[in-house]
Design brief:
This protein has 182 residues and is mostly helical. 49% of the residues lie in helices and 2% in strands. Helix 5 (56-64) packs across helix 8 (97-111). It is globular. The relative contact order is 0.11. The protein binds iron/sulfur cluster (2 copies). One iron/sulfur cluster binds at residues 45-47, 56, 81-87, 97-98, 101.
Length: 182
């Protein structure tokens, strides 16, 4: 019997359905379940081109197996996704891999395993309404290109969505921002 098992070409696969349900709850749907591993999302992924270790098909498979321990670990490959949405356009099954990856990133933040850089961007958005500060040179560049000033952002509304219970980081920001950042 032992010899038969050792010689068997079939590998036993375990699926953690509880962890998969946890992902689906954040995802707000079950479209990841329809991935049939065709690899179309890989062929047009710019991140895979530069980082062969990043493979959206493999990420979907790992998610289907419910192996969130791997996907949410510190330094997880999910953070290499550039959110370009090519995979969203390519997938014949409407799996929307980028949305699955975004859901995984949200779970990683809940667990505190996200990279420091992501936290910095989050805090910048919470403070200024933008992912990067609008510095003076950027304003001058916009002016030289004939672009209008950036519109004001309703910070109250933004904070209500992003962090309704969190105190604002640092000093209290103004209730709205336009060209005030420097
Ligand atoms: S996510 Fe879509 S494109 Fe990618 S392997 Fe699965 S079915 Fe194919
Ligand atoms: S959104 Fe992410 S996974 Fe999808 S093609 Fe772009 S980099 Fe690749």
């Amino acid at each position: 019997m032992e010899a038969e098992q050792a010689a068997s070409p079939h590998k036993r696969i375990r699926i953690d359905f509880a962890q998969r349900r946890r992902l689906l709850a954040v995802l707000g749907g079950n479209h990841v379940n329809y991935c049939y591993q065709c690899g179309a999302c890989v062929g047009d992924c710019p991140t895979t081109r530069f980082f062969p270790s990043f493979n959206p098909r493999e990420i979907m498979l790992t998610a289907l197996l419910g192996d969130l321990g791997t996907l949410l670990a510190p330094g997880s490959v999910i953070w290499k996704c550039s959110n370009c949405y090519n995979c969203y356009e390519r997938c014949p099954q409407d799996v929307r891999p980028v949305e699955v990856i975004i859901a995984l990133k949200n779970l990683a933040r809940e667990e505190g395993t996200h990279p420091e850089e992501a936290q910095t961007i989050y805090e910048t958005i919470l403070k200024t309404g933008r992912s990067a500060p609008v510095i003076a040179s950027l304003k001058r560049k916009r002016e030289s290109m004939g672009l209008p000033p950036l519109p004001a952002i309703d910070m109250g509304e933004l904070r209500a969505v992003l962090a309704p219970e969190d105190p604002p980081p640092g000093d209290s920001p103004p209730s709205s921002t336009a060209e005030s950042e420097s």
